[in-house]
Amino acid sequence: MSTSAPQYVKESITPLAELPWPLLKAVAALADAPLLQIADRLRQAMLPYMGNSALVIFTEDCTGRPQKKAGDEGIISRVSIAEMDAVRASLPDESPWFGDAEIAGKARPVLAMKHAASNALLVLTNPYPPGPASQAEIELVTYLWRITAKRIQEKVADAPPSYLLESRAASAERLRVTAELTDMHSTTLETLLAALRSSSLDDSTARNTVTDLTAKALVALRTLSDRTTDLVEEPVANAFERLREDLRPLTRFSGTEVEFIEPPLNGRALPGEVAHAARAVVRGLVLAMMEQPNVSRIRTQWDCDGENLLINVRDDGRGVLAPDAPSINRLDRRVQALSGNLRIEVMPGWGADVFVALPLDPPSRPAGDVAGWNLAARELEVLQHLAAGQRNRTIASTLGISENTVKFHMRNLFKKLDVGSRTEAIALAHSHGLR
């Protein structure tokens, strides 16, 4: 009795030459994109099917860089968080939406869509498909966006120490600059209010009108400041509740009971990068403990002493969790990236007890040795002003040089520091004590 080879119906198989290789390669590049390049790769993947002048992603998962942008510099350099918030609030669901919205200070035609799982937002300005927008093109653009939004979630959840360091530097810098702008504009507007309310002005109608407009501007400015603060800080109770949600699937299917001891409701708010790292560390510890023999119960507790987030995770296993295990080493690197410390106590037959402390403030460090960067005197001056949060125009005015000269020094700085962005340069400067 002979067994014949299986017969394949070749007609049902798409020839390799006819597969959409450019699209498949774009999807592969997108699925493997670093966070710093994800907006550009998404735009490149979409352009053959949905052209646009600029692409902006707004995601609160990334505390250091909530906006990821590619395209027209005149748009991506001016688009604001308040504008993206307004677009997102106007979208009823995940469905793609075509319409006009204010982006970069101007009403523009846009294509916008949300990602329900993360509440991330995608905006394409001046969308122009090669022909009339077909349903297939819109579905493909939606598919690429969902891959991207999921990729961002995964990358942030597993953020490496370098990302946490950059995120902390960017978060602190944005808070400082926003606070300065708020103070400056508040002083100006409050002065206007005092003048317009003066009895020496007899045009009461004009005074009342301008007073109302100025008061609204003050409220809007304060709201923007609060909104920016919300992006880089997370109430400790909210952060802990998100941890509980993250672990719920494990507690549902593993058979292991996880007990949550909540932090004080009035505890200090957590910087975003600390909240992300804390959740990742606890998730990693819970998974590692579940691999121990006979673990039936895990207890996790958060507390705040005003300066640190204090985490304690312990189990009732047989105490075989090794402090030098690869999984524990990875978690320890995350903790060390934020200048924290991790300590583990293992008692054979009684389980493992892990203590983690994450500082809520970046450490103050003395200025480090920057001689190895081989910077010229003017380049060092430019770097110091950059580290202080100043833009090119301000640096040029302060140093008495042109903006083009500042850009020339910036290019040299990036090359000597081996960085690819202003944020990376600022983070590196801060790590060496330059402020």
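Next protein, fold it too.
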Amino acid sequence: MAQATEWRFTTRLPQNFHPKSLRQLLMADWYLPKHLVFSLKRGERVLVNGQYLPVNFDVHPGDQIMLKFLATDFEHPYSNVTPDSAATVSVLYEDANLLVVNKTQGSKTHPNQPGEVGTTLNHVAAYLASKDQQPYVINRLDQETSGALLIAKNPAVVPVLVRLVKEKLIKRTYLTWVHGRLNSTQGIIAMPIGLNVTDKRKRQVNGEHPQMAITRFKVMDRNPDATLVAVHLQTGRTHQIRVHFASLGHPIVGDPLYANDPRQQRLLLHSWQLRLPLPFSFKHVMLTASLPETFHRFEQRYFN
């Protein structure tokens, strides 16, 4: 597969755009890191209406902005993920820069070893191979967690998307069934999470090297033995949803680490909705990932 050596982006500023410096547009509105803005400036690879413009000059409604990135702008311009079968790839959204897939339960997000196959990123690599594109992982879901997973298609949008994730500008809602009946209809769980010193696979509230973790939830449905909860993460700690609800005495149904369920009961945690600002634009998309069959089977036991 031929590897691209440059990536171009062209955007026309909307009519309701408030004039500001080109630097402010690139860094404050489009979340480009300072070193990339410097590279664009040094190489005169940022054009306004077809002409180079110093970044301290203002841009205005209707102006056309063109950016050109080179492979040399990035420490790791190519992801080099080994393609695998694309049969399991379920695309929720795709444009020239990124795609969001509905990750299959039981699939790892990305390979951990060179040449490893069978992960979601390997499957997406096969899907993109015919387009001469490569996948770049932005965030991850636990192997048994299903649902909306964000993947970049070129190195230029990777730092933008990473910053959007870090600053919580990408809004993600999870759905999960937890054991027992939650009395509150909504609430906030604010408890630090650290390492579990007796089991390196696990985390625990107030464990070793704790970091504050904040989880917001809203009850969506109930049955006599379990509660369906919509969850928003204000922080992003490892196993945060799983640890927080387990600490309340309401572990997630099927959790192999924090619940005492039969092994055949799979984890009922799903990345359900994703609200995403699109890079180098002023648009947003709202996406919903359909629930896996494991959710439907669990619900049928109580509601049919």
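About the second fold: The radius of gyration is 22 Å.
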